[in-house]
Amino acid sequence: MPQRTLLPVLLIAALAACTHAPYTDPSQASDREIITQDEIEASRGSSAYDVIRKLHGNFLSYRGRTSIRDTVTSMPMVFMDDQVYGPVSVLRNIPASQIAEIRLYRAWEATVKFGSGLPGGAIAIYSRLER
């Protein structure tokens, strides 16, 4: 009797293993490193800092010391339209209404895009005027 009940269970398990996950279009997936213009508008933040704090507070987090000898801050550097703009505090001076996109670059990505010396990564702001 135990073999008769085991066979259907094994058959169901085998059929379930043959199925696959439904296709999802990668372009439709939300990117955790990007805040879009639609998200910026929906957040109703008045500045870039407000928008980031509401939607992706992790962008503003301290990354910790990256070297025993180097005491350089590990906070992200802010870039506006691919130009150095300043430390995180300048985000309060950028009106949300002028922003098309906000993107976080991790340290290695920031180094590739903007050059060395960015142990905390970079927050890139792209204005509506540039896009």
State the main characteristics.
single chain, 131 residues, alpha+beta, Ferric Hydroxamate Uptake Protein, Chain A, domain 1, 5-stranded mixed β-sheet, 31% helix
How are the elements arranged and paired?
Blueprint: H1 2-18, E1 34-35, H2 37-43, H3 48-55, E2 77-80, E3 83-86, E4 99-105, H4 107-114, E5 122-127
Parallel strand pairs: 2-5
Antiparallel strand pairs: 1-4, 2-3, 4-5
Structure in words:
- The protein is of the alpha+beta class and 131 residues long.
- The chain has a single domain (32-127), classed as Ferric Hydroxamate Uptake Protein, Chain A, domain 1.
- Helix content is 31%, strand content 18%.
- The chain is built from 4 helices and 5 strands.
- A 5-stranded mixed β-sheet has the order 1-4-5-2-3.
- The relative contact order is 0.17.
Q: What's the average pLDDT? A: 79
Total number of β-strand segments?
A: 5
Strand order of the largest sheet: 1-4-5-2-3
Structural class, judged by helices and strands? alpha+beta
Helix coverage percent: 25-40%
Name of the CATH first level: Mainly Beta
CATH superfamily: TonB-dependent receptor, plug domain
By CATH, the topology is Ferric Hydroxamate Uptake Protein, Chain A, domain 1
- With helices defined by DSSP (H or I, 4 residues minimum), what is the helix count? 4
The gross shape turns out to be elongated
Kindly estimate the percentage of residues that lie in beta strands according to DSSP.
15-25%
Number of domains: 1
User: In this structure, how is the largest beta sheet organized?
Assistant: 5 strands, mixed
**Succession of helices and strands:** HEHHEEEHE
